[in-house]
Amino acid sequence: MLDAVSKSFPGVKALDEVSISVLAGEVHGLIGENGAGKSTLMAVASGALEPDHGTVTINGQIIEADPQGARRAGLAIVRQEPALMPDLTVAENLYLGVSSERRPSSARMRSWARERLAAWSTQITFDVDERVASLVPEHRFIVEIAKALAQEPSILVLDEPTEHLAAEDVTRLFENVRALCAQGKSVVYISHRIREVREISDRVTVLRDGQAQGTHDTHSLTEQEIVDLIVGRAVDTTFPAKAGPTSENPVLELTGFSGPGFDDVTLDVRPGEIIGFAGIDGNGQREALRALAGMTGASDKVQVSGKNVSVRGSTSAVDGGIVYLPGDRHREGIFAELTVRENFSIRSLTKYASAGFVRSSSERSAARSASSEFAVKTPSVETPIGSLSGGNQQKIVLASVLAAAPKVLLVDEPTQGVDIGARMEIYDQLRAVAAAGTAIVLRSSDAHEVAGLCDRVFVFSRGKVEAELSGSDVTETNITRSVLTATSTRDKRSRSAGGVWKWLDKDSAPAYLIAATIIGLAFYASALSPFYATQRNFSSILALVATLALVALGQQVLMMTGSIDLSVGPLMGLTVVIASFYLVDGTSPGLQLWGWIAILGVAVLIGLLNWALVELVGLHPMVATLATYMGIQAVSQTLRPTPGGLISAQITNAISAKVGFVPISVLVVVAIAVALQFALYRTTWGLSLRAVGSRSEAARVIGVRPKLIRLSANLAASGLAGLAAILLMAQIGSGDASSGTNYTLQSIAAVVIGGASIFGGRGSFIGVTVGALLLTQVNAVTSFLNLSDAWQFYLLGGLTIIAVSAYSLSRKRAVAA
């Protein structure tokens, strides 16, 4: 139950005293235009947003702004944009997505995940070990639904649940909804598809401009009455009139057009025409549209206005007059952090620039005119587009695409996630563009939309055009009949990345590659210098590795969250300086104890300071830790302007103890790396660490606390740097303020070479340790071969570029379109 809930954002009152009561055993429809407040209301209900005032009660329990509390009370939500972490596997997303009491042991996570997916369907075609980033949108949405059902909720909220689902999965979803209600549980069903709401819901609440317009028995209202309630006025739900071609000379011609997922498409589009691609998803129509936009490889059998056009890249397609309006607005359509003005002008900046400089007045004026023409509801053109409703975002994307004056406009799912009012406006705009002479090719999973908007329709089945419908034959019934009676066969193709790229995409791959490089380099150095393969040399290398690996492990923990710490090097130097005052011969045991406490305390304080500057003050991690870098270095230089203060040999000897020729410190570091690697994949903390780095907001809404996770990561980074400094002081032997500065860049290099993503969510502690070994070995080899110091940088720079390029390319190959 939601009672008098209100919520405001800058310039917008999203909810105004909204009250809704959901009964046990019912499907409660929630419907309204984009921007009406539906998703905001459900974000409040799920604990993801805190209301300005009003209360949320679930099963008699009042819920504060706490996603975990809402889940424990019995609510699960399937969001319009799945709250999944792309760098985590399907199994890991399902595991983190349920409350702690419903999670199995980490050892059973994969088998449990398979059970949860099998409960949805026994014909799932993806594996639980696949990263979410590699899944197509439909599969990501299935994971989101399976995650919600795994919570076994008493109240299930479905926000636009069928937008990415195939017909058979929509049927399966409705079966699950009815089964839940038969058990006395409740479902809140949010959708722009009025027919779906009328089919599945018992009662419906209409929202308009953040206010509830009443709750009604669903079947007491006609479709038109629901539309009138949504928009507050009578709306003509018919499609704009089809004017037909204004000339017989084609604007676009395809001849035997083929590519991944489709074959032998031959058609033409004349001025004034809109043609449609229809069929069940996955049958080639989307692939053909994206190939025509230059987004995938395809044969160049394309003519625009009688001229051959290359579509082997998106730039060449645009140069040929072909512009694409993407269906996945969030991933490909908008730049959420940029303003409405910037999103509008970014596809046609040359129109508002002189000598490479944007004329801001022209750009702003054009953006305002477009916002007015397309009836975009926004406080101003300087408002971040991410704060607008889906329909208004789609209008800006459409306006931006049309501002480029395309000859051919490719439109993918033009009204996905768009309310009925905005939908009619988009239809009118598309028909007006066609009448002006632009060829429009449209793909939609809604047969009713295709039939109402298009002059001709090409029905795809198994990668081929099964039927062409035109004139009076373009009806929803005929489109559906053509889809259901298709007899074509598909040539077997594979869209997956090759085996090498799949292997490189694994977090363990970098460690193997680095290990092979280390072995090869060792053999090469041994062949040229008899002094390389000696116990003394190996012992020295391992001691240096332990120091670098330890600080790099801390850096890796923080970089897992998408952050970075530039202050670790100066922190190590300050630790050595502190030791040179306290841990010297002649001081009392009590004073030495205070020295150890000071070393530990400084590491903790620096970690807390870096976290506070980022999380509380709002500085970028690089800016914050660069500031602490300079501050720490200044303190160290003040305390020790010149090196001095001999550290007790008794202490340095204990730190440098060995087992044979192997330093004990190396064994300790390896044990720490193994423990962290285990924690990364088998503990809630490790999974949460990766989740925050992969997609922080998605992690937050499923109950992870990003601020606390980043606090633990900052403390780990500074704490491990402090431990590394203890090893460093045994090597230096005296207080030197500059002794640790080189470790900042070296620790970052070890992490990157070890396979981590600088954006967070990906990495391996074993890989980092092996990366530290490679860096140290390169320094040693150049010395043994009498190479200049410059060669250290040549080799390290080259290795870093090669590693980053290989890892980045493999991850791009593995990500689904």
UniProtKB/TrEMBL annotation:
Transport recorded as keyword: yes
Entry keywords, A to Z: ATP-binding, Cell membrane, Membrane, Nucleotide-binding, Repeat, Transmembrane, Transmembrane helix, Transport
GO cellular component, one term: plasma membrane
Molecular functions per Gene Ontology: ATP binding; ATP hydrolysis activity; transmembrane transporter activity
Keyword Transmembrane helix (UniProt): yes
Pfam families linked to this entry: ABC_tran, BPD_transp_2
Domain named ABC transporter: residues: 1-234, 246-487
SUPFAM superfamilies per record: P-loop containing nucleoside triphosphate hydrolases
Localisation per UniProt entry: Cell membrane
Membrane topology (UniProt): Multi-pass membrane protein
SMART domains: AAA
InterPro entries: AAA+_ATPase, ABC_carbohydrate_import_ATPase, ABC_transp_permease, ABC_transporter-like_ATP-bd, ABC_transporter-like_CS, P-loop_NTPase
Gene3D superfamilies: P-loop containing nucleotide triphosphate hydrolases
Membrane spanning stretches: 512-533, 540-558, 564-584, 593-613, 661-681, 715-734, 740-759, 766-785, 791-809
PANTHER family per record: CARBOHYDRATE TRANSPORT ATP-BINDING PROTEIN MG119-RELATED (PTHR43790), GALACTOFURANOSE TRANSPORTER ATP-BINDING PROTEIN YTFR (PTHR43790:SF9)
Name of the featured protein: ABC transporter domain-containing protein
